[in-house]
Design a protein that fits this description.
The protein contains 14 helices and twelve strands. By secondary structure, the protein is α/β, with parallel strands linked by helices. The chain folds into two domains: 2-130, Aldolase class I (TIM Barrel, Alpha-Beta Barrel), CATH 3.20.20.70; 138-368, HUPs (Rossmann fold), CATH 3.40.50.620. It has a seven-stranded mixed sheet. The protein has a five-stranded mixed sheet with strand order 1-5-4-3-2. The longest helix is centred in the last third of the chain and has 17 residues, at 248-264. The protein is globular.
Length: 370
Amino acid sequence: MLQLERNPKARKLVDAQVEAGGGRIVEIPGEADWREAADEIRGAVQVDIRFASFKDGRGFSLAALLRERAGFTGKLRAVGDLIPDQALHLKRVGFDDVAPDTDGLEADWARARARFSHAYQPAQDKRTPVFRHRQAKPQDNLAALNARYRGLSAEEILRDAIENEWVGKIAVLSSFGAEAAVGLHMIAQIAPDTPVVFLDTGRLFAQTEQYQQALSEQLGLTNIRVLTPDSAEAAEEDHDDRLWQRDPDACCALRKVRPLDRAIGDYDALITGRKRFHGGERMALPVVERIDGRIRVNPLASWDAEAVNAYFKRFDLPRHPLSDMGYASIGCWPCTAPVQDDGDVRSGRWQGRDKTECGIHAPAQRIAAE
């Protein structure tokens, strides 16, 4: 058996459980759907992924998804038909050890272990090595970050997140809506080349598209990443352009959730502009949270409307063109209306429905600590 190096501090408890025969060990096939597998392995201390053939790469993808999307932090072992040449990639995607079925390759596996003795080293592709993912997963690390950020300003939180915690692997998620200029202005002062992810749903107000271009240019943001719905999916699921009316959740999934899911793997953390005063589920918003295994940083969580308005005035930032027309929260035009006098900030979204979020901030699993 080839034993791959692991972060000893982050994995000490899991190793002790496995070695003592405690905890649940689950085996799943490499071709399993990661979402179903995530449910199956919940609470397990060790997961064995079985490779039916060394030519089948689905086990590698499954391992990476369980680490990065499902947030699995236990022991991950590759079993089945494997060859020594795969050792480095096994390490890179998050496996801790391997138990190959093939006989007669003990010497080759030994050489592979010697050759790749430094596990989880960053590669030339600059993707975050597995040990960084491991360090970010434990709940106590999340709690420690929230404790550390509690006394810091939004600018200080952003600077630490960009320059220290998630260097080169963090992006801003922005709708370029009514309050977006505040956070984007801070980003521009710290690192204007930070990726800014913008979901162009194909249903945005023309004013939003114009504002996105004008504000990006004014602030000097140099790395805008525009995400759009898959055209084939849109043609099949929204052939009459009325999906928003029939099933707004399905429309958001098509035009927001899935496009973001396809791009989110490029980053370990996303910065949002959400705030507690928006109400609803956001009233308990932490500064740092984990959603489906990935970090969200909410530096403006504690800000209120007065603080937002004061920042606009202090830096003479341009308002979204629809703000003066009573739009306090701006999304897609079919599902956004001006706010009434007695309404809260987000009361103009999906009026007349129970829906309050588009889905990109409300996935199946959410872990947050303060």
